[in-house]
Specification:
Elements (H helix, E strand, L loop, with lengths): L1 E5 L2 E5 L6 E7 L2 E7 L4 H22 L6 E7 L6 E3 L2 E5 H6 L7 H8 L8 E2 L8 H21 L1 H19 L15 H18 L1 H15 L3 E2 L1 H8 L5 H11 L10
Parallel strand pairs: 4-5, 5-7, 8-9
Antiparallel strand pairs: 1-2, 3-4, 6-7
Length: 259
Amino acid sequence: FGAKVNAGMPLFIAPVDYYTGVSARWKGTELNYFFHASDTVVANTVVRESLRAFRFGNKFVGNYHPSTITYIEFPEFDFCQSMPGFILMGTDYLTNVKRPDKRDWVGHETLHQWIGNGYFTSLYTHSPYSRFTEESLTEYLRMVGLQKSFGKDTLRAMLRENGRIYTTRIKDTAEDVPIALDRPNWVTYTVGPIIWHLVRQSMGDRKWQRFIRTLYARYYGKVIDYAVFRRQLVKFASEETVRQMERHLNTKGIPPEFT
């Protein structure tokens, strides 16, 4: 097995029988999965969770444009990563995917096909809000997708769990920093979705979805920075809502109005 990067995209070289392949289809899009191990429980879990997120992305955000999407296990890869048209899956993540509390990454990385790979955010230009507009938003959309499938109580429970994780594992540690520091740490994935929830509540569901759909439709295939993102947001949210969001991003901890 070998892998290298050409022009920012990985090239995989492996024997044909190295992988076990699985395929699924949804409204003309082919979803292909390639696993190193042939564990049917793992494969079925990944297919089920990815299809749920894929359907939600199409219905809530906008149509997925490519004709295929590929999920491929990358041995000795320490994490998972979504790139245009495919998703790399680390073996440890797949090993743990049987556990309900260890499979969130499937939906999260799938929804990155819209947020971060449908339109691209300038993550590395030192904007204080880049990871919030990509990672926190993607994670909150994953939660909204589960809300659509299982009801509002599911979303409330997930947000409460984020609050519990912050209080018991992050608060008063080195990880307890404002999201505006733009670090790839826990607050991005725990407190970030809570802030997005407050923004959505202020906007109302209809305007919130129109913002998400308009951003994707208008900037598909383009790279945007926070200035562009903000200009689109204030078309659907009040200026005060956006300023309040930015105040939260520059203050550590859970916003008091959430509790």
